[in-house]
Structures are given as structure tokens and as C-alpha cells.
Design goal:
It is built from nine helices and nine strands. The chain is of the alpha+beta class. It folds into two domains: 115 residues, Alpha-Beta Plaits, CATH 3.30.70; 95 residues, Alpha-Beta Plaits, CATH 3.30.70. It is globular and about 60 Å long. The chain starts with 19 loop residues before the first strand and ends in a 15-residue tail after the last helix.
Length: 278
């Protein structure tokens, strides 16, 4: 995070844009099936698999409402997968993708699926995925957590947070819908399954300190219990510097501090970031 060095130059290798790109959205009944589907996609699609994103049904409902875009599938599902392939042979890639989808549905790893028919529809698929956070922010005050977890436990924290807030009386789901009379409006998750990165979101009417106290340090301790990381792709910065203890041992943090002092004795390189204050 720029705490022990300064970037003086950058060299970027721009890869050639793939001539054949396909995208598909699948409806899935459980996170375990999402995980199995990912394993199968890596095996069957292999070198042309370029993206495998997932989100839960609450994310789909909120994003679809915000962007005024109907669910691309004919029914609603607990989970959705956005799968993308990139290659150089359109016929080969399309056949490979359709064969994979047919097998996934036959094996009941996915209940339904649709392949984008053109670039416009591909863009709409990605609009839903990339616009999830924007739609959450429009709905209410969003407590955002960017965490890294083992793939087999990646989504487990979402129902655990749901349960904690429900037991505290600030959140309740009735037939899959949130009780809007309570302070919390939604608990949901989405992310990049390939690198074990989950974006956990709790949407509330306001940034209520009571809700924050229910979430922290509970979420960080949960992450620590499965040897995860409290910050996956967005870094620690100032806000999460004191949370490093949930990911690294005290001995390792001491070594980090020694390295910081060695490279930056005056503390002028991006100060107050990354390392805990005490």
C-alpha cells in the first residue's frame, strides 16, 4: 500500500483483445452447487474460462430493481453465476460453452441458464454484476466488507451475520423478503469465487452505531476463525489498520514494523496506513 516504497515508473503489457467472447448467467440452488459448478467449469472450459462471478438472490433482486432490468432467467434462484469465456475460435468456444451448460443442467448443478446473444446482452449481464454495490448504496446505508475466505466457506458468513442480526431484533426475513419496519434492510454477498473474495454487505436505513457494534468485531473474528483475511482487494488503509491482528500474528506484525522502520525511518511514505497504531 505504498508504505515502504515509492512507485517511480510503470510498464503495462496490454494483451490483445480476444476475438471470441461469450457470457452466460446460470441459476443455482445452493452455494455448494456454485462451488461444484466452478470446479467443473475449470475442468471443462479450461483455457477459455475468463470469469466466474457469483451473487445471491437478494443481490439480483436489488440490482434488477435499481437498473430496471428484468431477471434474465425465467425464475428466481438463491444464487446466480456469471460465466465468461474468451478465446480466438468462435465456433469452438460456443460449442464448448453450450456443452458445458447442457451438462451442468443435466447434472443439476444449475437449474437454468442463458447465453448472451450479442455484445449488448453481454454488457447487460455485467451491468447487473458490477452494479450490485451501486444498487445497495441507493437502497440505504451500506456496511461493506471486502474479505478473503477459503472457497468451501466463502458464503457461510452471510447466513451467520443474518442470524446474528435477526437474534438482535434488527433484521428479519419473511418468505425471502426483508421486514422493512426494522433497521436492517438486507444482508447479502457476492464475489469472485476463483480467488476466494467475498463482498459482504449489510444494508441499513442509517449508519447506526448499534448495528456497527453487532457487526464488528464479530465479522473480523469469524474471518480469523477460518484463517481468512479481513481485506481482500481493497487494502487496509487507515480504517482497517488496527484489524491486521485478525490476519497476522503479533510476531509477524512486529517484523512488518521493523521493515517499515528500516525502509522509512522518518515515517513519510504513506503514513498511518496498513500497520496498527499500537
Amino acid at each position: 500500500e505504498g508504505t515502504i516504497g515509492i512507485v517511480t515508473g510503470v510498464s503495462i503489457l496490454a494483451a490483445r483483445r480476444p476475438s471470441s467472447v461469450n457470457a452466460a448467467i446460470l441459476g443455482v440452488n445452493s452455494y455448494d452447487e456454485v462451488r461444484q459448478l466452478f470446479k467443473q467449469a475449470k475442468s471443462d472450459l479450461c483455457e477459455i474460462l475468463s470469469a466466474f462471478e457469483f451473487w445471491d438472490g437478494k443481490c439480483m433482486d436489488i440490482a434488477s430493481e435499481y437498473f430496471k432490468m428484468p431477471n434474465p432467467l425465467s425464475s428466481s434462484y438463491p444464487f446466480y453465476v456469471l460465466l465468461e469465456t474468451s478465446g480466438s475460435n468462435a465456433t469452438h468456444d460456443e460449442e464448448k460453452l453450450h456443452t458445458f451448460l447442457e451438462k451442468a443442467i443435466t447434472d443439476e448443478l444449475a437449474q437454468d441458464g442463458v447465453v448472451a446473444q450479442d455484445k449488448t446482452q453481454q454488457s447487460k449481464f455485467w451491468t447487473v454484476r458490477e452494479g450490485i454495490l451501486q444498487s445497495m448504496t441507493n437502497l440505504g446505508a451500506t456496511f461493506k466488507y471486502d474479505i478473503s475466505l477459503p472457497i468451501n466457506k466463502l458464503y457461510d458468513i452471510v447466513p451467520d451475520v443474518n442470524r446474528r442480526l435477526t437474534e438482535a431484533g434488527v433484521y428479519k426475513e419473511v418468505e425471502g423478503k426483508s421486514d422493512t419496519d426494522l433497521p436492517v434492510l438486507s444482508v447479502n454477498g457476492y464475489g469472485h469465487i476463483g480467488d476466494g473474495n467475498l463482498h459482504l454487505n449489510v444494508v441499513a436505513k442509517d449508519f447506526d452505531p448499534k448495528i456497527a457494534d453487532l457487526l464488528e468485531p464479530f465479522i473480523y473474528e469469524w474471518v480469523e476463525s477460518v484463517n481468512g483475511s479481513v481485506s481482500a482487494e481493497h487494502g487496509l488503509g487507515v480504517m482497517k489498520a488496527d484489524c491486521l491482528k485478525y490476519t497476522k500474528s503479533s510476531e509477524m506484525i512486529d517484523i512488518m514494523k521493523q521493515l517499515k522502520t528500516l525502509f522509512d525511518p522518518n515515517g513519510i511514505m504513506n503514513p498511518y496506513k496498513f500497520l496498527p497504531s499500537s
